[in-house]
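Good morning C.,

I know you're traveling, so I'll keep this short. The sequence:
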Amino acid sequence: EPDSIWYKKIVISELMANSTAPGSRIVLSAAGEHQYGDYLELQNTGAESILLSGWKLQEYGENYSSEYFTIPQTVLDPGEFLVLCQNNRDFSVIYTNALSAHPEIKYREVFTDSWGYSSSGNQTVIIRDQTGAMVDLVFFKPSVYKKIIRQGTKNNTSVVISDDIFVSIERNSLQISSLDMENWTSSACDLGTVFFRQTEDNIVNNYTLQIFASPGLRQSASLHAAKKLQIDIRRGDFIWSPGRQNFTIEITVNKACALELKVFSKDGRYIGTYLKNIRAGDNAPAKIFFNGGSLAGRLKPDLYFLTVTAVNNLSGETAHDKIFFAAGK
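The tokens, ready to paste straight into the viewer:
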């Protein structure tokens, strides 16, 4: 658990650990070839300016080796970003579209060219303040990078590219732990064309891409179209009778969320809550058994409706559905 006084004030908000593979994927520009595009983005979420002096970035590799990098002294104003990059020259060219559109972006060279980010192994990154206390950390693995499909060119021929290259991962909510990998999304935006060369099966191919990671911007457009939270209850004849007849409802939601079930009379009068904080998976049907529970004594023979509310705890998004059921004697 982070123990710095700056915990939840300076946070890791985005990271790119999959931009280029030296010798196989190189970004091209009029200024030459560039291959070091990995970065880590910090943001000041507090209400006051914070001086980062004597701060360190600590990286753990898959073999538990640890390496420290010094963060250059910087003042971060409220809401401001600091991008810790691998190589100033390469970063300024690879992300020239983002920097041209947003010249206020601060970036500092921190890592060496042998920085340990790798798409082939698990990584842990820790930010420490001048006392050595932990400010924030993130653990990530290759699977968090999702392949996306976008239009581009290969050797001047139009192609559809399906890959996870040049895609960063961005923290959706700065209030939710950075260790919750459901809180990270593959991210980039359209800021202009990027040219790169990639060696595949010993053949050098030239590509263009229109969508690229965007350091220092919040929130980058997700490459996965945001799904609207939807809830569906399988319809049927629902009849309940105390001690004699119960029923099961099948609920499907398209995102991981929590469910709450409430009972109302047919004229809309609130009877009570049947269940709450029931976990539902991503498109995995949840079967809920209705036996009246603590509401049994309040359910007289009549027609009622059962409302189901789904809440996505990550975004706060909600969705609703309801069914009618009959209560017998």
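Safe travels,
E.
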